[in-house]
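User: Hexosyltransferase, Sinanodonta woodiana:
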Amino acid sequence: MDCSCSTFVIGICFRCGISADKSRTAISLCAKVFIWTVFCVVVVTLVSAYIISHLQMYLPSLHSATRSNVRDMILEIQVRNTTVLTPRPDACEACFSHNFKYVIDNNVMCKLYNDSQEIDLIIFIFTTHQHQQERNAIRQTWLNCTNKNKANIRYSFLLGEVPDENIRKLVEEENKIHNDIIKEDFVDTYQNLTYKTMMAFKYAITKCPHAKFVFKTDDDVWVNIPGLLKVIQREKMTLQTAVGGACFHGANPHRNLDSKWYASFQSYPHDSYPGFCSGTGYVTSNNVVNKIFEISKNVPFFHLEDVYVAICIRKLGYRLHKIAGFNNIRPSFDPCLYKGDNLITSHEVPPEMLISYWNTTCTR
Ligand SMILES: *[C@@H]1O[C@H](CO)[C@@H](O)[C@H](O)[C@H]1NC(C)=O
Ligand SMILES: *[C@@H]1O[C@H](CO)[C@@H](O)[C@H](O)[C@H]1NC(C)=O
Ligand SMILES: *[C@@H]1O[C@H](CO)[C@@H](O)[C@H](O)[C@H]1NC(C)=O
Ligand SMILES: *[C@@H]1O[C@H](CO)[C@@H](O)[C@H](O)[C@H]1NC(C)=O
Ligand SMILES: *[C@@H]1O[C@H](CO)[C@@H](O)[C@H](O)[C@H]1NC(C)=O
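Assistant: Predicted structure for Hexosyltransferase:
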């Protein structure tokens, strides 16, 4: 066996298959084989080292991966992706127009029944089509003081649109009886509550400009109207440039997908909110409502309505004013507390509970 090139390959005999008289060609050929072999080995080693080192980075998390770990990883990838592409701008030129049409336009809500009548307060209650029981419980209890929308306090239940024809019909019937529903043609979902707020504000400034104060709440809230009226009387000057309620400063976006208040980096690319006054109940003046509605045209949509209101308030240079007695939780029931001056709102009160609270009198 002719193996004249073996000296070049550190003891490994390559079968070059060439005779001794062609040894010079053989030497250069074997050298090429040798160099290519070394090159290939080096490349393969480097590539595998790279792959292994990266696998080790991911392996521990993959081993212990729970469902939420994997979801967080996917979310992080999505978040990085979208942040780079289209984060929500802080301001814009006429990008948020409220172009929805009324489906139920309740023109009697703010009607004045004589020359000397004034509207001190309008109450907007966020609800959904199916919550007829909630609405009835509220009508029977804390809305009694409105005297079916003829007193100086007025109210309305707010809805968006739903696909189901039968559910729509039920609400139309309900409105024929009570005349207290306002509805526009945006899709009624949790993600669209900011549209509902803008619907309320638009209604207040276009159809109720003579109303002095505006209160926004939900259909699972106990509201102490006499207490609220005292707060308004006390805070009437402050509320010309502030929103009052269960206000929080220094709130941060929830980045966990499971959170009810989840906000993606794309929808809000900052670490903190300008605060917010809980949507379970906030009060302000018609003046502030007017200013918010105007500035909202240049403030990009954000789905958490109370945060959106706070963003507008900051842009206006106004304030979020924390007022004692506004609770975004449900304090334990005591009729003297619930009907006294120290509690204005209580949250997560289902219809039967609302009625039983209403029927319990304070005996101290
Ligand atoms: C990144 O963004 C593009 C365009 O919005 C989208 O098609 C793609 O699915 C995104 N990738 C990930 C991993 O989210
Ligand atoms: C005006 O109407 C309201 C509500 O019906 C009533 O309470 C009030 O007494 C009326 N005022 C006058 C001067 O008639
Ligand atoms: C509770 O109050 C409602 C009206 O708010 C009334 O119709 C009902 O009879 C009361 N029920 C009881 C048990 O007192
Ligand atoms: C409901 O309001 C009417 C007048 O609008 C009043 O006469 C009645 O006492 C009120 N009922 C309760 C339980 O407050
Ligand atoms: C919000 O409402 C708009 C307008 O009706 C609709 O196009 C959109 O799908 C709704 N968004 C959600 C998340 O329901």
